[in-house]
Amino acid sequence: MLPSTSCAENATATVSRTAVPRRSGPISTESLMTLERPPGPEAPPRPARITLTYLAFGLLWIWFTDGFLAGFGLDGRDWFLAAAGKGTAFVLLSAALIFGLARREFRVAAHAAHLLRAVADGTTDAMFVKDRDGRYLLFNAAAARLVGKTVAEVLGRDDTALFDPDGARRVMALDRCIMESGRPLTSEEVLTSAGVTRTYLATKAPYRDETGAVAGVIGISRDVTDHKRDEESLRDSVWRFRSVFEHAATGIGITDPDGRFLQCNPAYCATLGLTEAELREADLAQLIHPDDRAENMALLRQLSAGEIPGYEIENRFLHASGEPRWVHKWVTALRDAEGRTKCLMALVTDVTERRRSEAELRASEERSRKGAALLSAVMDALPVSVIIADPVGRIVRTNPASERIWGRAPTADSVDGYREYVGYWPDTGRRIEPHEWPMSRAVLNGLTATAVGVTIERAGDRTRRRLELSAAPVIGDAGERLGGVVACLDVTERVAAETLLTSVLDNVLDAVIGIDEGGTVRSFNRAAERIFGFTAAEVLGRNVNTLMPEPDRSRHDGYLANYLTTGSAKVIGAGREVVARRKNGETFPADLAVSAFWLDDHRYFTGVVRDISERRQLEDQYRHAQKMEAVGRLAGGIAHDFNNLLTVINGYSKIVLDEMPDGDPHRESVGMVRDAGKRAAVLTRQLLAFSRKQVLQPTTLNLNDLLDGMSRMLAQLIGADVDLTVRGAPEPWPVRADAGQVEQVVMNLAVNARDAMPTGGRLTIETGNVTLDTGYTAAHPEARPGEYVRLAVTDTGCGMDVVTKARIFEPFFTTKGENGTGLGLATVFGIVKQSGGHVEVYSELGVGTTFKVYLPRDRSDPSPADSAGALRAPPTRGSETVLLAEDEDGVRRLAKMVLQRAGYTVLEAHHGGEALRICEQHEGPIHLLATDVVMPNMGGRQAAERLRAMRPEMKVLFLSGYTDDTVVRHGVLEAEVAFLQKPFSPDALAQKVREVLDAAR
């Protein structure tokens, strides 16, 4: 096999000793080089040595013979003859000397060749010599055997005759490299000859001739195929042993006979928590638990002494962490041929977990034994029926409660045997088939059921009981079904209680909501559905903050978490007013009571929610009524006193104005006083209107006719930039109201609409017949069900926000600044309420406002006074006697003067008591009592009652500046009570007196 490096780099390389058979040792290049000269006891003479010897002999011969002949004194011919004889002798002696040397040299060479052949033919290694062309000059028998040819077949031929072409090229190339470098080389060659591939270890060196020139290659080659195979097998064996040693799960430790560690595998090190280096320094005895140390060391000494072949034991090692580790240890001795102990080997397995598992298993078995006994005791004590069945449904175990619940101890050989048990599905009443029982589904299909409600008939008495069945399959370690178990809970009483509770909850008027710790709704009664607009299915499972508006919705979870963490009872308690949210997004005020309770180690909350919208509205109405009452009392008191003053001012100014000639310079001044008095009278009427203390003179009205009569005046009032549209109902129902007051309502609403449209717009006034049902009145508690005529006034103005809308009917509240009195809409509200009606306002910013006035339908027949009386001007003069009772001097004197001028006899009284005395003292008839309602000493009502008892034929006319009196309030409804509102004009007083006197005729 050619080396991977260049020839020059490998010329001096040798193969390691492991690659050469140990029995012959390495082949050295020095021994290979000695093959250039024959080996022997003497080294063969070299040509230079022979020449020197010959030269020395010649010189000595000349010197000696010349000296010898000189002693004879020869000359001439004798000298010539002597010299010729000396030369001949020299030649002969030289020839003899050279022949002897050559002969000796030949013998030495022959001996060397013989020795070389003997060596070549006697060695088992292949020996060869090649010339520069690669032809073999020498090829021993061993080499011939290796290539499967004879020596004669090889000599004179090159490697192509011996090996495969590739192998021959590699060998010849290597030879050329050696000859070129002039250095020996040892290498492995893998060659194929005669179809057999072998590995050779070849040592080659250049072969030089007598001149020192490289004449070829000489080499020795050894077949190391089997040796290589043995070495590879040995390496594999060592590798396998090392792999097993290093990767074995069992710890392997090797020590000397005294117990000092020589080698340990990783598993052994891991068992003790030490490295191999630490173990080599450790004392084996100190690694063994003190309680096990003596026994282990005694066994170790016996094993080292050869007293025992080995031993097996379980003991405790001390782990590096200090934890004792149980190990199973098998120890044996490795001995030499003489039986001497060379080392000890221990196989160690960590059995700590096994020991622990065995202990746990023993404890578990003990617990299982106790558990089985406990389970049996528990089953016998349980009030719940527990039934256990095998894989086919055969009942193998029941407890005493089963007999009590089922009427007898349940038995069955299979699922089909369940047919004898009578059960029904509660929701449908259908009988339960054998395969439908939860136990059947558990053992046959491996299905689990929890709290399945069924109704059974008990054996024997055939009474029906409501049960909850929970069943589950019993699964083995391999996943196989071993049977099933079912628990039967008798919930008959609980279901009855739940049914009763559900009935109660579904019939209470308040919402009852149950939630868990997370705020999830768990119960939702019918009242909650009605109040919130959600169905129970829509709410159950959702967070209760669904029922809350912001910001309570975001804060709720924090309140709940704070209560659960700290116990702070912010969410617990009764009587809390909150804002709740309906499904449609509408919010409403609610009274909330929350209580907490524990169930199955979990905390739950019950909230009772009462919709207090109606109560809030009533409270608001009550507060508004109180405010209006207070303002009304104030306004009524002011109006009463002011009306007395206005009666005097307007009355006397009228009289003076009537008596003044047209050219009187003071007539204009008196007229201005008269006009101012009229305007003041209008203001007092407004005060009485919004305080609902004015006296109404109701008549049967058709609102369409009233609006037709007002159309021209309304158009002038609102201006040309507002488009007025009046739409009357085809056949409006009649209403009973004071025509003047209804006109005042329309005028005030029209003015309010005009002011809301400063740049113009559209004003629409409509009438219509409507019936208000209980649904409407539930949302508007101030209204009452019934038939009404609706008067709607709609503008396209700026509209109102919620805050403004809530205050528009408050007296003196205005959004017009200094230009408004705050009495317009308050007057509207007072007139409508005093007329038994109802006002509703709809407004949206930027869109406009609609006022809807609802006046009750009048089903009475129109009185004659409503028609003809209103058209006929009554006479103003008379001759009857009138008793005038008035505490205000100015009013009394004015009334007396007016009545006297009209021809009446007037009896004057300052209060009711005085009127009684006058009536008792007056002998003639008294035709009419004209009395103020509120007077000191005795009021007009008491005086009228007593005087009418004395004089039944006497008529009564009440005069008042306000109407806070029972008689007058009745007068609003009772036509037989006559009343004249202050301030009144002289003509009005005269006409009213004449009207009352003529009423009975």
Automatic annotation (TrEMBL):
Catalytic function, reaction form: ATP + protein L-histidine = ADP + protein N-phospho-L-histidine
Annotated source species: Gemmata obscuriglobus
Record protein name field: Sensor protein FixL
Transmembrane residue ranges: 52-73, 79-102
Name of a matching Pfam family: PAS_9
Gene Ontology biological-process annotations: regulation of DNA-templated transcription
PANTHER family: SENSOR HISTIDINE KINASE, TWO-COMPONENT SENSOR PPRA
Domain Histidine kinase, residue spans: 637-859
Chain positions found as 4-aspartylphosphate: D932
Enzyme nomenclature, EC number: 2.7.13.3
Region annotation (Disordered) ranges: 1-44, 856-878
Regions of compositional bias (Polar residues) in chain numbering: 1-17
Domain PAC stretches: 184-236, 311-363, 574-624
Domain PAS residues, every copy: 112-182, 237-307, 497-550
Domain of life according to the entry: Bacteria
InterPro entries in the record: CheY-like_superfamily, HATPase_C_sf, HATPase_dom, His_kinase_dom, HisK_dim/P_dom, HisK_dim/P_sf, PAC, PAS
Annotated Response regulatory domain residues: 881-997
One of the record's GO molecular function terms: phosphorelay sensor kinase activity
Keywords, alphabetical: ATP-binding, Kinase, Membrane, Nucleotide-binding, Phosphoprotein, Transferase, Transmembrane, Transmembrane helix
Function in brief: Putative oxygen sensor; modulates the activity of FixJ, a transcriptional activator of nitrogen fixation fixK gene. FixL probably acts as a kinase that phosphorylates FixJ.
